[in-house]
Design brief:
Length: 295
């Protein structure tokens, strides 16, 4: 346990005046002192599951803790750890939801311009010269179609809309444009509902300026949320809407994918197409995929 030589200060304390304490007594008292210091404090002994009865260190189960209480303590400990892990998971998903929800293809503008030139597609730029999408100009068309593309990829990957609609009616029916979202392709900006809507508002305002031809919107998948929200904001500016594999409410899709999370509480981008279209009185068409496993 210890020796008096290890505790010279204890020996000095035990030497009172001229009364010299024998070394054997010093060793004995020093040993008792060391043994006392080695005992864990009462709270620590309780946390470690031990108890001192004055002579021995005994396990708690020998000092009155029933098996039921021990089991209950263990169960509560496990539940506490599970609750902490679940909260941490919810916070992680809430913080990373944009990365989980949106999957853009990001490319430098020169590379996209070369790709578009090879396909016969022209860049669509705003008044400041910034690239905001792609188009095939057709001044002979009777109407214009503004497309909001689906999630993965970029606007240039949806060139099928440009090629298909511009060819209808001998090329005199539609002039088609595909808007690029902020954070997709070469367009800078944050991902998310508000950024998409701001880009859509600016595009509608630009298309309406100096051109009286009817403007229709097309929303594909995640783009259906942007298209529906803009129709709700500008019901008089939009002549009609085409939805391709849309959803009713984004929160319902997310809840189906992750039913074990409180999606309604943590989801930031609440696209509600049903509510957005409630006051729209123009024509609405839907293209539905019966075996769609995404929406």
């Amino acid at each position: 346990v210890g020796h008096a030589a290890d505790l010279p200060w204890a020996a000095r304390v035990l030497r009172g005046g001229e009364d010299f304490v024998e070394v054997v007594e010093v060793q004995f008292l020093a040993a008792l002192f060391c043994f006392h210091k080695m005992q864990p404090p009462r709270r620590r002994r309780k946390r470690l599951g031990i108890q001192h009865d004055g002579n021995h260190i005994l396990p708690m189960k020998q000092t009155g803790l029933s098996p039921w209480r021990a089991l209950k303590r263990r169960i509560l400990g496990v539940l506490r750890q599970l609750a902490i892990g679940y909260v941490a998971l919810v916070l992680l998903v809430a913080g990373c939801q944009n990365r989980m929800l949106y999957h853009p293809r990001v490319s430098p503008e020169p590379a996209l311009l070369r790709e578009a030139e090879a396909l016969g597609i022209q860049p669509w730029r705003d008044g400041a010269g910034r690239l905001i999408g792609w188009r095939q100009p057709n001044s002979a068309a009777r109407a214009r179609l503004l497309c909001f593309h689906g999630n993965a990829g970029a606007a240039l990957d949806r060139r099928g809309y440009l090629q298909t609609f511009n060819a209808l009616g001998d090329g005199r029916s539609w002039e088609t444009l595909v808007l690029e979202y902020p954070g997709y392709g070469a367009r800078p900006g944050p991902l998310g509902r508000e950024a998409f809507l701001m880009a859509g508002r600016a595009a509608i305002a630009e298309l309406r300026h100096g051109d009286q031809r009817p403007l229709y919107l097309c929303g594909e998948s995640i783009g259906s949320g942007t298209a529906a929200a803009l129709v709700g904001e500008f019901p008089d500016a939009v002549a009609g809407v085409l939805f391709v594999v849309p959803f009713a409410r984004l929160v319902e899709v997310a809840n189906e994918k992750m039913p074990w999370l409180p999606v309604r509480l943590i989801l930031r981008d609440h696209f509600d197409n049903v509510a957005a279209l409630a006051k729209f009185r123009g024509p609405v068409a839907f293209v539905i995929a019966c075996n769609d496993e995404v929406v």
